[in-house]
Design brief:
- By secondary structure, this protein is of the alpha/beta class.
- Helix content is 38%, strand content 21%.
- Strands 2-1-3-10-4 form a five-stranded mixed sheet. The protein has a five-stranded mixed sheet with strand order 7-6-8-5-9.
- The termini are far apart.
Length: 260
């Protein structure tokens, strides 16, 4: 009798010990809500170069679809203007610049990553009424020409091309971003503008593009970075990761951007 009771007691102790071991199993097997991308919420404020308008609008929508708790707010302008806004305290989470110089001008940023490259191309109205044949026409005072101001990446690249081939441009209009220069062409206000090939591809129903070999003198690299003072650091990192992902790259290359 005593032996049977002792055996039963030992069995109970063993069962209790096994149950305790189950409770001590590391919780790592369950997903951490803090690290899960599904837990992303709030706004992600993205400051992006004007030439990224079409692609980043699409990427913003795709990112929101992947993260229903997030709203991507996009601010497009010339990279120099965006850098100035950020330095003045604008609440940005991510900055995507059309040139390294403007990224370098931003004080509080993470480590930038070059994600695409872009090349200049001549934009003319449909039918090319100004009879533009190449980049040297930009030195003809009889032509109506628009280029970007030298402070913004498309203008700095244009200036580099002009100097490389030894011409002095005669612009009738200096624009603060590439979209403004392209608009001048689409409205027929100028004979030509120097913009990016991706802008011409996006507006091919309104303008025509003329490639020129000298464009290789100034290929723009586009860096992207999170901001050190980002209001939504988790959302900022996730958005940058999305841009750098295969899905992000497919949207950018379809728009005509080149791989870095």
């Amino acid at each position: 009798m005593f032996r049977r009771t002792a055996v039963a007691a030992l069995a109970a102790v063993a069962a209790f010990a096994l149950a305790g071991c189950g409770d001590d199993t590391p919780a790592a097997s369950a997903p951490s809500s803090g690290s899960s991308t599904a837990s992303l919420t709030g706004d992600v404020n993205v400051f992006a170069a004007a030439s990224l308008t079409g692609t980043f609008t699409q990427l913003g929508k795709d990112f929101e679809a992947a993260h229903p708790g997030v709203k991507v707010k996009l601010n497009f302008a010339g990279s120099s203007a965006l850098a100035q806004q950020i330095n003045q305290g604008a609440p940005a989470d991510v900055f995507a610049s059309a040139a390294p110089k403007n990224m370098n001008d931003v004080k509080d940023k993470g480590t930038p990553t070059t994600f695409v490259k872009n090349t200049l191309e001549i934009a003319v109205p449909k039918g090319n009424p100004g009879k533009i044949t190449g980049i040297k026409d930009f030195a003809d005072a009889q032509k109506k020409i628009a280029i970007c101001a030298v402070q913004v990446p498309c203008g700095a690249a244009a200036d580099k091309v002009f100097k490389a081939i030894g011409i002095t441009a005669q612009p009738d209009s200096l624009e603060q971003d590439v979209k403004a220069a392209l608009t001048k062409v689409s409205l027929g206000e100028v004979d030509a503008a120097l913009v990016y090939k991706t802008d011409i591809q996006a507006a091919k129903d309104k303008v025509e593009g003329i490639e020129f070999p000298e464009s290789s003198k100034a290929v723009n690299e586009y860096p992207i970075a999170t901001l050190s003072k980002a209001p939504n650091p988790d959302g900022a990192k996730a958005f940058v990761d999305y841009v750098l992902s295969d899905k992000g790259k497919s949207v950018l290359t379809a728009a005509g951007f080149d791989a870095p």
